[in-house]
Amino acid sequence: MTTAAKAAICRGHDHPFAIEDVTLDALRPDELRVRVVACGICHTDLAVRDKQLPVPLPVVLGHEGAGIVEEVGSAVTVAKPGDRVVMSFNSCGACPSCDADAPTYCYQFFPHNWSGTRADGTPTMFAGDQPINANFFGQSTFATHAIAHQRNVVKVPDIAADIPLDRLAPIGCGLMTGAGAVLNSMKVRAGLPIAVFGTGTVGMAAIMAAKIAGANPIIAVDVHDSRLQLALELGATHAFNGRDDAIGKIRELVPQGLGYAFDTTGINSIIQDAWGLLAPMGICGMVGASDPADNVVFNEAAFMGGGRRVMGILGGDSDLVTFLPELIAYHVDGKFPFERLIGYFDFDQINEAIEASESGQVVKPVLRMGAE
Ligand SMILES: NC(=O)c1ccc[n+]([C@@H]2O[C@H](COP(=O)([O-])OP(=O)(O)OC[C@H]3O[C@@H](n4cnc5c(N)ncnc54)[C@H](O)[C@@H]3O)[C@@H](O)[C@H]2O)c1
Ligand SMILES: [Zn+2]
Ligand SMILES: [Zn+2]
User: Fold this and answer.
1) Closest residue to atom 20 of ligand 1, CA basis
2) Which domain holds residue 63?
3) Neighbours of ion ligand 3 (CB under 5 A)
4) pLDDT score for 294
5) Where a domain ends, among 299, 314, 329?
6) Do 154 and 279 have their domain in common?
7) What is d(CA 189, CA 268) in angstroms, rounded to the nearest whole number?
């Protein structure tokens, strides 16, 4: 059975998102149809709009969705109709990375998340009688309804029964990436210093997680003073403006060097400077989307000599089944207060929400598609 829905269609940088009538395909055995309650807007949606990622346009974006399951295919065990769920990235479940519970590095990441169709090439969504690119991150949740999959849906645990879905929506991308980078990828140790470059959603999540891990000091760097102020309220012990010799100030504060430098800006001069601040055995983690042609340069002797490491990080090395419930539990305990980052918009204000994100006015815009 097909399902009528409304979806925001992205046609590129020079066109506003347009909400139009679409039809969702009938479900396959491993798929779920979710009525979308809310969806966060992430930098990666805009990177696709701006053609920095190889996702075909026009496309229905949105990859931080939360909603209520309406129908499930015959092979779905992860949730049932009526369940409250959050959605994240999809993966194949059968490659060496998926076998090692490291699905963010799925060998089949592209066909399952960015091809615009199901991994087998069939469309999940139609505009009129024509297929339209969708299945973005296995969901395309800038829409009232979405087809998701057994591997990218997590049922909201009972401990979070009172937390509204429009708050939980963004947990499946930027928040998970920043927190996972600290807790899973770099495995930040208590008592060691960390600096976080860029305090958007990913950097703020990293700062909250660094506090959970007991890092000290926790240094935030950004070019917006309002974001630095919020970073201090969320766990940073020091905050430096990147326009005002932040690197020199960090060197002065931590003369022995940083245990961890985490870059979310994707600016290669910042990554190089951050790497230069590492103590022996220090780790420089990077997540920022940068120009595919960019290179970073490290001194070979310093790289080897101190056992320093550079780590590319996708999705915070999150195994959704275990890590999203862990983060939700931190939130319920008040240790991961990401609600401080959110600004809400109605679905039909999607272009205003994007503008608020790009101007820096709102750290994490969340669109509301319907009541819970
Ligand atoms: N690797 C992954 O799995 C993954 C997942 C989610 C997002 N991302 C990427 O991570 C990056 C961060 O995402 P976000 O949602 O937090 O984005 P964001 O734009 O909200 O945050 C970036 C921050 O960097 C700051 N910044 C810009 N120039 C700076 C400078 N010169 N010095 C210091 N700070 C500076 C900005 O003011 C902003 O606060 C994006 O590139 C996004 O595409 C990667
Ligand atoms: Zn895989
Ligand atoms: Zn994202």
Assistant:
1) 200
2) 3-172+337-368
3) 42, 44, 173
4) 86
5) 314
6) no
7) 26
